[in-house]
Amino acid sequence: MGSSEHAAALRRFAALALRDDDTIHPRGGSMLLAHRSPTRRAFVFLHGLTASPMQWDALARRLHGHGDSVVVPRLPGHGARNQLTTQLRDLRTPHLIGAAREALAIARGLGTSVTVVGFSLGGLLAAWLAQHERVEHVVAIAPVLGIAGIPQIATPLLAAGLSALPNVFLWWDPVRRGRNLPDHGYPRYPTHAIAEALHLAGALARFARTTPPATRRITIVTNASETGVNNGAARALARLWQAHDAGAVLLRRITGLPPSHDVIEPLRPGTLARRAYRQLLPILYDDGP
């Protein structure tokens, strides 16, 4: 990798950043933390549903401070100033996959080795990239492969039902609604966006059942105190991949946290995120065998 690839990656990110107009929150746009020349490692961070690149700000800056390059794309429909925007009602899987692949292409020009890290919806997209793209390391944290409390066998029925019903917005917290939440994310989500994620998870499982992943180092991270996604679905995906290559997938679990899903958000009150970072950083910096 030389300076020409690095310059091309910077130009490509600049074009991506132009999509962040004045309707986007000042902290909601795509983020690039690069160096003057290519680095040994480049990271792609993919945020969760209704969040924004700011969700990764603390970890991204820490890694950049250690000499790594980091790109954090704003996923389609996210990051708006208006927290009650309805943009996500039109969220579609191809747009999400396209955004993830675009960020990966940028990162390949920034570092010799690329690690893709995703959380929640971003974790699902990271897992999708692991199946279809050759990456040095993919880390999927609490990926949306199913919903907590919903048996895996019922997930396709849930996805079909949500798709068939009207697309309505629900509050993440029906009691507090948007109070005390970071202002760079949305307090509501559309039900069709959940359906899109679950359909993508089903498609990923079908691919994984018959085809080995293109990425040979995959780490799936679950939260022992998970409240939002189905940890069993994450383990099931790992087993499908391991059937092709027992050494390709590593399951890791973070522990000692209160019941929670979003363990990444740096602006969440308390020390939850910092406690999670202490367990996640060694995973991100693990160069493997």
Please explain how this structure is put together.
With 289 residues, the chain is α/β, with parallel strands linked by helices. The protein has a single domain (3-284), classed as Alpha/Beta hydrolase fold, catalytic domain (Rossmann fold), CATH 3.40.50. The protein is built from eight helices and nine strands. The protein has helices at residues 3-17, 57-65, 93-108, 121-132, 155-164, 191-210, 231-244, 272-284, and strands spanning 31-33, 39-46, 69-72, 111-119, 137-141, 169-171, 188-190, 218-223, 249-254. Helix 2 links the parallel strand 2 (39-46) and strand 3. Helix 3 (93-108) crosses helix 4 (121-132) and helix 5 packs across helix 6. The mean pLDDT is 95.
Which structural traits does this protein have?
globular; seven-stranded mixed beta sheet; 8 helices; 289 residues; two-stranded antiparallel sheet; 16% strand; alpha/beta; Rossmann fold
Helix vs. strand class: alpha/beta
CATH class: Alpha Beta
Strand order of the largest sheet: 1-3-2-4-5-8-9
CATH homologous superfamily label: Alpha/Beta hydrolase fold, catalytic domain
Shape: globular
Could you tell me the number of beta strands?
9
- State the distance separating the first and last CA atoms: 24 Å
Helical coverage, percent range: 25-40%
Mean of residue pLDDT? 95
Per DSSP, the total helix count is 8
Radius of gyration: 18 Å
Count of distinct structural domains: 1
**Might you state the CATH topology name?**
Rossmann fold
What's the architecture in CATH terms? Answer: 3-Layer(aba) Sandwich
Strand-and-helix sequence, N→C?
A: HEEHEHEHEHEEHEHEH
Enumerate the spans where pLDDT stays under 50 for 5 or more consecutive residues. Answer: none
Largest sheet, if any?
Answer: 7 strands, mixed
Strand content: 15-25%
